[in-house]
Amino acid sequence: xxxxxxxxxxxxxLVRAIASGLAVALLVTLIAFLVREKxxxxxxxxxxxxxxxxxxxxERPALRSALLAWQEITQPIHLYIVMxxxxxxxxxxxxxxxxxxxxxxxxxxxxxLALVLKYxxxxxxxVVDDPVSHSPGYSFPSGHAANAAIVxxxxxxxxxxxxxxxxxxxxxxxxATFVLSVCLDRVFLGVHYPSDVTAGVLLGCGxxxxxxLGLLGWQPPDHPLHDSLHPHRKEAP
Length: 237
Fold this sequence. Notes:
Blueprint: H1 2-36, H2 40-58, H3 61-73, H4 76-92, H5 97-121, H6 143-159, H7 165-188, H8 194-218
InterPro entries: PAP2/HPO (IPR000326), PAP2/HPO_sf (IPR036938)
Protein name: Phosphatidic acid phosphatase type 2/haloperoxidase domain-containing protein
Pfam families: PAP2
């Protein structure tokens, strides 16, 4: 009876993870379809935002320098060097091997998936008469935005069990601010359209959350990971 209950519990969680992944895939695919078909309202919104954003940046040299510096700092390779060190710390210092491997594999999968999608959609970078910055490759989705969202979501999930309510609120605000700053950086430098960064964030956050639900679903119901979201909950007497 206990085995049947555990199997049903695992099945429900795995179905939830798959459903979450499919929902994210559907949203990103919809945006990609509109981009590929050059859906006029989306194109006009994207082009107008790029013209306004780059004009604003062009008139402010200090802002342009700050955006270019942030672009370099938030290169995916830099983010993942730091996060690889974090995964090693989780593995060696906190002795959470499963979490460490989950975080590392999920991040590498997300990084490569964003790259593959660029070649599937093949959207050209924004064309600006007087460009603020240049970036190689295709535009959709934004790799910077996707990887920032991946890293931020992984950090939130890793740190969540270690914090109480106030710390969690601060963590969420810092993570959201980080992702938003990367998205704005891409648009105000004129190297990505708003739809590119939106799809990147959806892909990054959605992939990590679906992966997390899958990890929980694969573990037995009494596994410590199932209590990780409520580590300070008091047991009933």
